[in-house]
Amino acid sequence: MLSELQKLDFEALKAFIRFCDEHGLRYYAIGGTLLGAVRHKGFIPWDDDVDVAMPRKDYDKFISLVTSGEKIGEDFSVECWQAGDKIQSYFAKICSAKFDIREDVLEESSLRKGYLVDIIPLDGTPEGVLSRKLYYARVMWLRFLCGTANVHTGIVTSRPKWEQCVLRVVRALRLYRFLSVEKIYRKMERLFRRQKSETAMFAGTVMGAYKTKEIVPRTYFGTTYDEYSLWEFEGLQIRGPKEWDAYLTHMYGDYMTLPPESERKVHYKKQICPIRKEADRK
């Protein structure tokens, strides 16, 4: 049986897929969402969000549509920095229009806004080994700067210990005041758009949780991004990478074997509350 949060995730995913079908946009289920589809025909029982990737061309079109007023449905909205949303993420996310979701992911048990679907652009990388390593180094530096610029919202305790220590110093000295997260996002955008997403030897979602591990041979997604595999997900048909087995093996190893119970953890502890309308507050 799905949790209340997973039910919201599922409805948001349906709205996203419907929007993509209406506008001819390509996407792939990735990460734990793809693993759930393959191993469980739906959600991993302890998972609490949905991850999808869009080829850069489709992602840019998606952002253009939602920032120009297109909606993915009455019950959900898309937040992204391009629309001026105060979101602590480079990539777009889907949230509920009816429920306020808060994540207990930060030190000192503070809360921040939670989301249902992560929509991550699928970008290529440089061809040469050295060029690719330099590219990774630059991306990781920009990612760190993003964390620094957003440090006043709290420090995610899943970060490496050394990062947490540095960020505590940054927050204590209020050095984040000298950084503009939007400028950092724009630098990222220019860097990613210089890559050949459709023809690169390697491609992936480098802004995802697993960072450079999410870069794989581009052919894992198909000879072109028009290719895909189809999977059942809680009764819904969703797209996955063409070479799904190679992708999942790269990401998780023996992916069909369940992890020990001690490792079956949700990403975040989330709280769900109905959003109160102005009339209800009076």
Set out the fold topology.
Blueprint lengths: L3 H20 L4 E2 L1 H10 L9 E6 H12 L8 E4 L12 E5 L2 E6 L7 E2 L3 E8 L4 H21 L11 H12 L8 H13 L8 E3 L10 E3 L11 E5 L2 E5 L3 H9 L16 E6 L3 H4 L1
Parallel strand pairs: 2-7
Antiparallel strand pairs: 1-2, 3-4, 4-7, 5-6, 5-12, 7-8, 8-9, 10-11
Enumerate how many helices there are, as a single number.
8
CATH architecture label name: 2-Layer Sandwich
**Class, according to the CATH hierarchy?**
Alpha Beta
Order of helices and strands: HEHEHEEEEEHHHEEEEHEH
Count the E strands.
Answer: 12
> What is the arithmetic mean of pLDDT?
88
Q: Radius of gyration, rounded? A: 19 Å
As for the CATH topology, it is Beta Polymerase, domain 2
Give the fraction of residues assigned to helices.
25-40%
Give the quaternary arrangement of the chains: single chain
Overall structural domain count: 1
Strand content: 15-25%
Biggest pleated-sheet summary: 7 strands, mixed
Low-confidence stretches: none
Q: Give the class from helix and strand content and strand pairing.
A: alpha+beta
Gist?
The protein has helices spanning 4-23, 31-40, 56-67, 129-149, 161-172, 181-193, 244-252, 278-281, and strands at 28-29, 50-55, 76-79, 92-96, 99-104, 112-113, 117-124, 202-204, 215-217, 229-233, 236-240, 269-274. By secondary structure, it is an alpha+beta fold.
